[in-house]
Design brief:
two-stranded antiparallel sheet; mainly beta
Length: 65
Amino acid sequence: MNFTGVRFNAGETFNVTLDAFEVLALRSVGDLTGTNLVSSEKVSAVNYLIQSSDPIKNLKIGDEL
């Protein structure tokens, strides 16, 4: 995954500070399974899988969090 121009591989971490009502959207062509969110305040997280619109190939394109 690339974030702020830096590539992060599986197992690597990065920190982001958000103010109230700010949103961070992460998109990866890889799998975001196992992503760990840590916060000092209450947060919400939504994750969904992006798949190909071709029902025959049914390719997984990536994850969004």
